[in-house]
Amino acid sequence: MKKVNIMKSVVGFMVLGAILTGCEKDFLDVEPTSVLSDAAVFSDSTLFENYVINRYVGVRLGNKEGDSNQPGFGRGFEYGMWSSITDESIYNNDDNTWIIQQGGLSPENLGIAGTLWARSYRSIREINYALERINEVGMSDTRTNRLIAELKFIRAFRYLDLIRNYGKVVLIGDRVSQLNDNLQDPFFFDRRPIQEGVDYTVAQLDEAIAGLPSSNSNEYGEGRATKGAAMALKARLLLYAASPLYNDGASNTQKWAEAAAANKAVMDLGTYSLYQGGYDKLFTTEGSNSEYIFARFYNLTALHLALEIANGPNGYGGWGGNVPLQNLVDDYEMADGSTFSWDNPTQAAAPYDNRDPRFYQTILFNGAAYRERNVETFRPGGLDSQDGPSNWNTTKSGYYLRKFLRDDLPIINPWGIAGVQNWIYIRYGEVLLNYAEAQNEAVGPDASVYAAINAIRERAGMPDLPTGLSQSDMRDKIRHERRIELAFEEHRFYDVRRWMIADEIENTPAYGMDVTKNSDGSLTYTRKTALTGKSFQTKHYWLPIPRTEIQASNNQLEQNPGY
Fold first, then answer.
1. Could you read off the pLDDT of 318-334 as tens digits, one per residue?
2. How far apart are CA 90 and CA 70, in angstroms?
3. Over 321-332, what HEC string results?
4. What are the start-end ranges of the E strands in 166-251?
5. What angle do helix axes 227-242 and 428-443 make, rounded to 10 degrees?
6. Tens-place pLDDT, residues 331-356
7. Rounded CA separation 111/65 (Å)
8. Is the separation of the CB atoms in 309 and 418 below 8 Å?
């Protein structure tokens, strides 16, 4: 399929709605050549479609305003990944992540999440502007309806992000704010109950589902929303909405059943399946595969990532960015499905032997084969340790990230030829895990729950789950499987919150591992604290709304509790 450059459209650098609507036409006598007027965009179907395409990435949710290498819907995963504000990893050199890890999150300092609220509503405003004027463009009904459906999908994606981060949201509907609006109108600051936000977003997705194609043809290209993408996004939202955090800590069987049905509907499409070319290759193989549901595709002229240099071991020339924690390493099972234990002398003597295959495809550890040699985090003398030639970015945890990295591309990237990976926002493996969780909570561990989880495990090369599990035992197994299968894919932050276990998980110290090479060549493993001061308070289940937004509303906008 033809790849569409969704990062660099004709109008990609000028289409803030306020620019299009807020300037008098005679403000300047000279027509600028670096921007396009609203009249030009809405009189040319190609320009208008480029405007719509650019809404996928028009508001980047990276680390800071203006990041040039950040994708659209995801977090800033070129440098500080969302995993580095969880118990999956820490970012070696902070990058606005430590303040969240250490419990310092506040309305004045949101770290890596700093501009999420404002950017999301800016994107919603841009989408509403396009919806308001789309009938002026003069396209066929088929093309118009397709673009309307895409815009509603993107708007729903923004609302889902707002809901899962802030809880109650302001529902703007189709309204397009203007410069002459009364910006103190309570309409702009009325945060609605969570369920109302969920219902609105689900309705938007239902409308998008009705208008989106089943697949992206050559005409439309990869990376744009499809019927399956909208169904999967709806299924994810309903899973969240059924979770304890969204129901005052209670379990709601009816909501779990709705979430299970929504995920089952995606499974029943028959469009998607687990990629069988290898768990590691799922994230690094060029082009799409059977597991992709919605993704951001690499394009030569588009903004892309620098995953190799940003996360590669320092001894190889990398910056050692998002370094996995011992907390995650210890949760990888043994290859036979049993639990790893430091109290087992055999396992403790060789802690990286005979583990879940996904461990080796996700994490670089001392002795791991990587590129031209084995990783050396041991001391004294290890090339990837503090004793190595480039020690400013030595891993603080004793590990480096392997998932997403391609060995065939250079770590040092002077010509922009590394970092060509796609980024998968939604994949079929997540849908199976979503279904298993929701179905187990709705009816218990029936055969379909086992089938979904075992399919994931079999693809990974792990044995099936034992039969006869109780609902509680299956819940634990499903949560474990999500932790391992979806590691570093932006799920853990939300999972521990919606399950309401973050006050336990995120108050556990961020552990790492010191490896000492003894004079006889043997190795000694010593657990250490990789980042001090890790802390989580009840208020951190939701992000705070930035203080600047509260002040701009003349204190009409309700802040989340505790901030």
1. 999 999 999 999 999 99
2. 19
3. CEEECHHHHCCC
4. 169-170, 191-192
5. 40
6. 999 999 999 999 999 999 999 999 99
7. 12
8. yes
Asked if pLDDT for residue 483 goes beyond 70, the answer is yes
How many CA atoms within 13 Å lie on the side-chain side of 310?
21
Quick one: average pLDDT of 148-168? 97
This prediction's pTM:
0.90
410 cis-preceded (ω within 30 degrees of 0): no
Alpha-carbon gap, residue 481 to 555, rounded angstroms: 43
Q: In this structure, are residues 555 and 115 in contact, taking their beta carbons and an 8 Å threshold?
A: no
- Name the one residue in this structure whose structure tokens are 């690094």: 284
Rounded Cα distance between 251 and 86, Å, is 24
381 CB burial (10 A radius; 0-12, 13-18, 19+): exposed
Residues 435, 452: Cα–Cα separation, whole Å: 8
* Contact criterion met (CB below 8 Å) for 383 and 314: no
Query: Are the C-beta atoms of residues 487 and 328 closer than 8 Å to each other?
Result: yes
CB atoms within 10 A of CB 409: 16
The amino acid sitting at 398 is G
**pLDDT tens for each residue of 23-75:** 444 434 445 545 678 888 888 899 999 999 989 874 343 333 434 333 333 34
